[in-house]
Structures are given as C-alpha cells and as structure tokens.
Design a protein that fits this description.
single chain; alpha+beta; two-stranded antiparallel ribbon; 3 helices
Length: 214
C-alpha cells in the first residue's frame, strides 16, 4: 500500500476519537501469545467509523464484505489470546477470530483451515480510561494445516496489507454497503522482531481504517 501516506500518531479530532495509544494507559500494541511474546495489533478500525461497524455483529458483517467470516463450523482450535489496550480493562481475551473465506461466507473458512490464508483477532478499546470504541485487529497470514497453522514468513505485514487492500473503497454484504479509507501510522509500534511471536520481524506500521456505512 505504498500509495497510503505515513502519518505520525494522531488520535483525537473535533468530532471524536479515532483511538487512544494503548501505551499511554500501560497497554501494548502487541497481544499476549504466551512466553512473553506477542502478535502485532497492526490494523485499527477507527472509533470514528459508523457506530454499527464497531459492534461484534457489525464487524462480522464488515468482515464478510471484505472476504472473511466466522471460523469453520464455529470450531476454534487453540486458546484465545488477550490484549491490554490501555483502556483500564487490563488484559482481555479476543472478542472474536475471523478467517479468510475465499468467497464463501458459510464454509469458506474451512478451506482456510486446510490451506492457510489470512485471519485476524478482534479487541475492543472500550474501558473507562480510554473509551474510543475502536477495534484493534491482530492480522496475520497463516500457512496450511500441515505446518500447524504457523505464521507465514513476513506474515504479519502481509496479512495487514492484504486486509487493508480488500477493505479500501466500496464493499458490501447482507444489504449493507461500506466506504472505507485507510492511513498508515508510524510511532505506535516498534519495528523488528524483538518480542514478536515466531521471531517474525514487523515494519512497525499500523493501518487505520475508517469504515462508513452508506
């Protein structure tokens, strides 16, 4: 997404708050994957998005509009990861995990479970100390089932860019049409592999999506 501008962190506007920097409240831009490692919260759906997008059912519908859906047959393998978004809630488990559906919102995620693909975890910044309503996403590209669904090389940055590319512009699902803009933000997350799960380096860029229902 080279066409996107690189911005420093700007969160508060005259009409609301896009998000609060988790570090300001003792949180982190990495979730907790265990053993002191984390996966980057590399996409944020802005708190300035349409309110109906910023709910669990709303983000699921938006996800379906950009090629993701709920897990295959609602089966989730592995423990949920937690994240501290610095909002006063402390570490909170992911709200939901969504997977690439390859054009079939009913059973397509079963294919992702077999051959790999993009997926993301959702965390909501809604505590009393930083109630932006923004959704922080941990996005990554997975390999196939034979590798134990490990993250692909450069899978965090690739996953972020793939999701953002699918979201930008006009999309629709279930009778709801979305218009999405994106900005790349620097300064929220360090670049490199220190503390990153699977020792995969990240470029330190977080993509901010603003999603408006038409």
């Amino acid at each position: 997404m080279n066409a996107l501008s690189l911005l420093r962190v700007t969160t508060v506007t005259s009409v609301g708050t896009a998000f609060f920097n988790p570090a300001d409240g003792g949180g982190s831009m990495f979730d907790n994957a265990g053993n002191g490692l984390g996966e980057p919260l590399n996409v944020i759906i802005s708190g300035l998005s349409s309110p109906d997008v910023l709910t669990e059912s709303g983000v699921i519908n938006f996800a379906r509009a950009i090629g993701f859906s709920e897990e295959c047959l609602d089966i989730h393998l592995g423990a949920p990861f937690s994240a501290n978004l610095g909002d006063g809630n402390g570490p909170v488990n992911q709200t939901i995990e969504l997977r690439q559906d390859f054009g079939n919102s009913e059973l397509g995620t079963c294919l992702e479970s077999l051959i790999g693909g993009n997926h993301f975890r959702v965390y909501v910044q809604n505590g009393s100390l930083a109630d932006s309503g923004a959704l922080f996403l941990a996005v990554s590209q997975e390999e196939n089932v034979t590798t134990g669904h490990t993250i692909a090389p450069d899978g965090y940055d690739i996953g972020r860019d793939t999701l953002a590319s699918a979201a930008i512009g006009t999309t629709s699902f279930g009778g709801v049409t979305y218009s999405t803009t994106a900005e790349n933000i620097t300064g929220l997350m360090p670049a490199g592999s220190a503390g990153v799960n699977h020792d995969i380096a990240v470029d330190g860029i977080v993509t901010l999506l603003t999603v408006t229902i038409q």
